[in-house]
Design goal:
Strands 1, 6, 9, 11, 12, 13, 14 and 15 form an eight-stranded mixed β-sheet that branches. This protein has a four-stranded antiparallel β-sheet with strand order 3-4-5-10, with no helix packed on it. The protein is 43% helix and 20% strand.
C-alpha cells in the first residue's frame, strides 16, 4: 500500500528524495541521465560515453599527486578511503559511489576534469576515481549571487548501503546535519545490485548499458522499499558496526564474515583467494583469516572447497551436464573436482551422480 499524504509529509528527507526525485528519474531516463566517471580525463575520453542532455565536461590541472592511505584501524579493518590528493580536496575509495543531483547545478571535480550537471543527472564514480572529500564547494558558480546545490550520495558498505545528503549554501558545504538526512540500509541485496552495477560499468562488456539500466532501476526501487519499511537506521557516520566504537567487536567480525560468505557463494565459478575476499570486506589478510575460522569453524580453503562440492552435488543430481562443465561452473578443473570427491565422498563425481539417481525413486516413495 502506498503511503498516505499525511504519512508522506512526515517522511525523512532521504525517503522524500527517493520517492519524488531519484526513482521517478531512473524510471523515466535510466542510463540516459547517468554519467560513468573514470579515473582520469584520458580514460573518460577513451570510454566515449554519451553525456546526458545539459551536462558537459571541462579539464582542470591537479595541484597535487596521489598519496596512498594505509591507516591503522581497529580490528584490522581498513578504511574506505585508499588515496588522497591533499591540495585538491579529493580522495578515492575502494568502493563505487553513486551520486544524484537533487537541487541546483553541480560542478563535480573528478581528478583532472570536472563534470557539470544538474537535477536529474547522476554520476557513478567507479572505485579509484578521485572525487571530493567533503571540503570542496561543488556548486556551479553563477555569474551573480551565491551558489547552491544538493546531492544525494550512496556507497556500498558492510552488509548494506550508506546514504546521505550533501548541501552547498552561501560558500559552505555540509552533509547530513538535519535528522533524516543520512541512513544505513541493512540489505545485502541492495549492496549486491550497486556493486554489480559498478562491475558492469567497469567491464564494458557487450550490452553493458542495457544491463546497467536494469540494475540501476532495481537498486533504486529496492532501496526505496527498504527505507519505506523502516529497515534502516541513522548511524554516527556510515555504519552501526564499522564506525561505532560501542559496537561489540564480535558483531563487527560476524557481519564482515557473513558478507564474505555471501561473496564466496556468488563467485564460486571464479578464482577465489583470501586476499581477494578479505579486500572485498575491507579486512587485512591476517585478521580476516582469524575471524573467518572463528565464525565458520573452518579455514578459508576448507569453506570454499565445501561450497564448491555442495554446488557440484546439486548439479550432478539435477542436470545432465558433463563433469567438465560442472567443474567449470564451480570454479575448479575436472581433475580437481574428482580429487575433492575422492577425498570427501570416497567416490568419483560420476559414481556419486549414478548412486543418487539410483536411490532417488526409493527416497521419493518413502
Amino acid at each position: 500500500m502506498p503511503p498516505t499524504k499525511s504519512t508522506t509529509e512526515s517522511l525523512s528527507p532521504l525517503l522524500r528524495v527517493m520517492q519524488k526525485q531519484v526513482v521517478p528519474w531512473v524510471r523515466d531516463k535510466g542510463m540516459d541521465n547517468l554519467i560513468i566517471a573514470q579515473s582520469s580525463w584520458k580514460n573518460f575520453q577513451r570510454a566515449d560515453d554519451p553525456l546526458p542532455e545539459g551536462a558537459y565536461v571541462t579539464r582542470q590541472a591537479l595541484k597535487s599527486k596521489r598519496v596512498a592511505v594505509r591507516p591503522k584501524t581497529r580490528n584490522g579493518d581498513s578504511s574506505l578511503v585508499n588515496a588522497l590528493w591533499p591540495k585538491d580536496g579529493l580522495c578515492s575509495t575502494k568502493m563505487p559511489v553513486l551520486m544524484f543531483v537533487v537541487g541546483g547545478k553541480v560542478a563535480l571535480p573528478l581528478g583532472d576534469y570536472v563534470v557539470h550537471c544538474q537535477p536529474g543527472h547522476a554520476v557513478l564514480m567507479l572505485a579509484g576515481t578521485p572525487h571530493p572529500d567533503g571540503t570542496l564547494l561543488c556548486a556551479e558558480r553563477p555569474p551573480v549571487g551565491n551558489s547552491a546545490c544538493d546531492m544525494f550520495s550512496l556507497i556500498p558498505y558492510g552488509n548494506g548501503v550508506a546514504c546521505w545528503l550533501n548541501h552547498t549554501r552561501d560558500g559552505q558545504h555540509w552533509s547530513h546535519r538535519a535528522p533524516g538526512e543520512n541512513c544505513y540500509v541493512i540489505s545485502t541485496q541492495a549492496n549486491f545490485y550497486l556493486e554489480t552495477l559498478a562491475e558492469e560499468a567497469t567491464s564494458r562488456s557487450p550490452h553493458f548499458r542495457a544491463i546497467c539500466g536494469g540494475l540501476l532501476l532495481t537498486f533504486t526501487n529496492l532501496l526505496m522499499r527498504e527505507i519505506e519499511a523502516q529497515r534502516a537506521f541513522q548511524p554516527l557516520l556510515f555504519t552501526k558496526t564499522a564506525l561505532n566504537p560501542d559496537a561489540p567487536q564480535q558483531l563487527q567480525g560476524e557481519n564482515s564474515i557473513a558478507r564474505a560468505q555471501s561473496y564466496i557463494h556468488n563467485h564460486l565459478q571464479e578464482s577465489l583467494s583470501i586476499d581477494r575476499v578479505a579486500a572485498h570486506v575491507f579486512m587485512s589478510r591476517a585478521h580476516f583469516t582469524r575471524q573467518f575460522r572463528l565464525v565458520t569453524g573452518k579455514s578459508f580453503i576448507e569453506y570454499v572447497t565445501q561450497c564448491r562440492m555442495e554446488e557440484a552435488k546439486v548439479l550432478l543430481q539435477d542436470t545432465n551436464w558433463p563433469i567438465e562443465k560442472i567443474s567449470s561452473v564451480v570454479g575448479v578443473t575436472a581433475a580437481r573436482l574428482r580429487s575433492i570427491f575422492l577425498e570427501h565422498e570416497q567416490q568419483t563425481p560420476s559414481s556419486y551422480r549414478l548412486q543418487k539417481r539410483l536411490i532417488l525413486p526409493k527416497t521419493q516413495k518413502i
